[in-house]
Design goal:
It contains 4 helices and 2 strands. With 108 residues, the protein is of the alpha+beta class. Helix 1 packs across helix 4 and helix 2 packs across helix 3.
Protein backbone atom coordinates (compact mmCIF):
# COMPACT_ATOMS: atom_id res chain seq x y z
CA UNK A 1 0.00 0.00 0.00
CA UNK A 2 1.41 3.36 -0.91
CA UNK A 3 2.39 5.66 1.93
CA UNK A 4 -0.03 8.35 0.73
CA UNK A 5 -3.00 5.99 0.81
CA UNK A 6 -2.06 4.66 4.24
CA UNK A 7 -1.65 8.24 5.47
CA UNK A 8 -5.12 9.03 4.10
CA UNK A 9 -6.69 6.08 5.99
CA UNK A 10 -4.90 6.95 9.21
CA UNK A 11 -6.02 10.58 8.85
CA UNK A 12 -9.62 9.44 9.16
CA UNK A 13 -8.81 7.31 12.21
CA UNK A 14 -7.03 10.27 13.82
CA UNK A 15 -10.04 12.54 13.23
CA UNK A 16 -12.42 9.99 14.77
CA UNK A 17 -10.07 9.62 17.74
CA UNK A 18 -9.96 13.39 18.22
CA UNK A 19 -13.75 13.66 18.08
CA UNK A 20 -14.09 10.76 20.51
CA UNK A 21 -11.99 12.52 23.14
CA UNK A 22 -13.48 15.95 22.43
CA UNK A 23 -16.96 14.57 23.15
CA UNK A 24 -15.81 13.25 26.54
CA UNK A 25 -13.92 16.34 27.74
CA UNK A 26 -12.03 19.39 26.50
CA UNK A 27 -8.81 18.47 24.69
CA UNK A 28 -5.71 20.39 23.64
CA UNK A 29 -3.03 19.72 21.07
CA UNK A 30 -0.14 18.44 23.19
CA UNK A 31 -2.47 16.11 25.06
CA UNK A 32 -3.81 14.69 21.78
CA UNK A 33 -0.31 14.21 20.34
CA UNK A 34 0.52 12.14 23.45
CA UNK A 35 -2.77 10.20 23.33
CA UNK A 36 -2.43 9.41 19.64
CA UNK A 37 1.20 8.44 20.25
CA UNK A 38 0.02 5.79 22.73
CA UNK A 39 -1.87 4.26 19.79
CA UNK A 40 1.10 4.30 17.44
CA UNK A 41 0.40 7.54 15.59
CA UNK A 42 3.39 9.85 15.34
CA UNK A 43 2.00 13.31 14.74
CA UNK A 44 3.90 16.54 14.96
CA UNK A 45 2.25 19.80 16.00
CA UNK A 46 2.53 20.83 12.34
CA UNK A 47 0.27 17.92 11.43
CA UNK A 48 -2.15 17.91 14.37
CA UNK A 49 -2.94 21.61 14.67
CA UNK A 50 -4.15 21.98 11.06
CA UNK A 51 -6.47 18.98 11.69
CA UNK A 52 -7.85 20.64 14.84
CA UNK A 53 -8.28 23.95 13.01
CA UNK A 54 -10.02 22.24 10.08
CA UNK A 55 -12.41 20.39 12.40
CA UNK A 56 -13.17 23.69 14.15
CA UNK A 57 -13.64 25.63 10.91
CA UNK A 58 -15.97 22.87 9.67
CA UNK A 59 -18.10 23.22 12.82
CA UNK A 60 -17.20 19.88 14.44
CA UNK A 61 -15.15 21.41 17.26
CA UNK A 62 -15.36 24.64 19.18
CA UNK A 63 -12.39 26.18 20.96
CA UNK A 64 -11.78 28.28 24.01
CA UNK A 65 -8.53 29.89 25.11
CA UNK A 66 -7.19 29.22 28.59
CA UNK A 67 -4.04 30.48 30.31
CA UNK A 68 -2.06 27.70 32.02
CA UNK A 69 1.22 28.54 33.77
CA UNK A 70 1.29 31.88 31.97
CA UNK A 71 0.89 30.27 28.53
CA UNK A 72 -2.13 30.46 26.30
CA UNK A 73 -3.67 27.09 25.51
CA UNK A 74 -6.57 26.38 23.19
CA UNK A 75 -9.04 23.78 24.45
CA UNK A 76 -11.34 22.06 21.98
CA UNK A 77 -14.74 20.44 22.56
CA UNK A 78 -16.99 18.64 20.13
CA UNK A 79 -20.06 20.52 18.95
CA UNK A 80 -23.45 18.86 18.40
CA UNK A 81 -22.41 18.54 14.75
CA UNK A 82 -19.17 16.86 15.88
CA UNK A 83 -21.07 14.49 18.16
CA UNK A 84 -23.34 13.52 15.25
CA UNK A 85 -20.36 12.95 12.95
CA UNK A 86 -18.72 10.75 15.60
CA UNK A 87 -21.88 8.65 15.99
CA UNK A 88 -22.10 8.19 12.22
CA UNK A 89 -18.38 7.45 11.97
CA UNK A 90 -18.57 4.86 14.75
CA UNK A 91 -21.42 3.07 13.00
CA UNK A 92 -19.50 2.97 9.72
CA UNK A 93 -16.42 1.75 11.60
CA UNK A 94 -18.46 -1.01 13.28
CA UNK A 95 -19.82 -2.12 9.89
CA UNK A 96 -16.35 -2.14 8.38
CA UNK A 97 -14.90 -4.04 11.35
CA UNK A 98 -17.62 -6.70 11.20
CA UNK A 99 -17.11 -7.23 7.49
CA UNK A 100 -13.34 -6.90 7.12
CA UNK A 101 -12.01 -8.16 10.45
CA UNK A 102 -14.68 -10.58 11.63
CA UNK A 103 -15.61 -11.74 8.14
CA UNK A 104 -19.34 -11.32 8.57
CA UNK A 105 -21.26 -10.82 5.33
CA UNK A 106 -22.63 -7.38 4.58
CA UNK A 107 -26.21 -6.95 5.81
CA UNK A 108 -28.66 -5.67 3.25
Amino acid sequence: MSGDLLKHFFGGFVRLHILHHAVIEPIHGVEMIEELGRHGYKLSPGTLYPILHDLAESGYLTSEDEVVDGKRRKNYRATKKGEKLLREGKEKLRELFREVVEGEPEQQ
